[in-house]
């Protein structure tokens, strides 16, 4: 997709989160760390001309997809171009096998954006007239995880309307999709809240949460460079279906959510891995507080600083309960953009939940679905690596849970992150068996390995 500057457009303000992302982009404009990607393999006779029409309609519906972000003497602004400037980039790939198609999709997602030109592109890798792969890429400044699925849903709703095929099977009782709110209204609401009495109270609450604590920092394999490179890699931690069942049962039995249970044990793993007795991590939370914003593509996220404190007597259940309380109270103040607090980075590690069964394209995460008369299947390409020291995305679907750990490769080796994942797995297992166990008492060495180490120490090995 190429975006050309449209006719003169009014300069529009950015949200606090967008301004922070714009600055991060200026520091490393060649990085793809903030690219949000959704790729789908399409089987069936795709009409490229109709897909372009649908893309134009999509851009008309969601103005951030046709926005660009130039800098001015007064800081960054947003300018909006005409919908027709958003063009589908068709790349012919005849003869490419599946591995090559995946590689090309990954590369399409990794291409950096020039924010002065735009923050959205759609790339169609066409192996044949009936076998294509569509890669939609946004910069985080115009999108979040939900947005990427919303734009895919709306794109194929538009496509299906033009070909006589529904995007997906309609959900029982679901009303027609309302028109999304304009982004200016979101920015205005944020600024009004920040300047209000409620905003002042929220700012005071976050300062109290952060008082005396620093961002959690894991011991690194290499010295921290003066400038972060925004380069990373991914490691996945999966849990057995039986563990997922026990997790749901244990959480429900105590009136908690599975995410809170996983978050508490994640904080315990950070403590046992060298983050200290008190620290902050970020928990991204949605700011889609109204029906129209729930249908809009945009950066509807505020990160909630979440504190963890440990003593020798702190149990796993104490940590889990504290995580529940932190999130409950934090969500009441989620409208306040914590970027405005200042004082350096509040966190270098984040943890969030993605509920696949609540995503706008129902069923796509778990298997093929019908989109506009085509068979569509998710292609899980790497993305968003290196934003922070460590970002953790807990994915929940009908099959259970898995965690996607994205980490900075200039700080950590793969083996270090894998070892952290095993520490987290161990603490979760113990929390399900004996939640009142003190975090400091959990043994982190497997029985066979412990016997070997003890034998080394005694000279018997």
TrEMBL record:
It holds the Pfam family Condensation. It comes from the Bacteria. Residues 11-449 form the Condensation domain. PANTHER family: FATTY ACID SYNTHASE (PTHR45527:SF1), NONRIBOSOMAL PEPTIDE SYNTHETASE (PTHR45527). This is Condensation domain-containing protein.
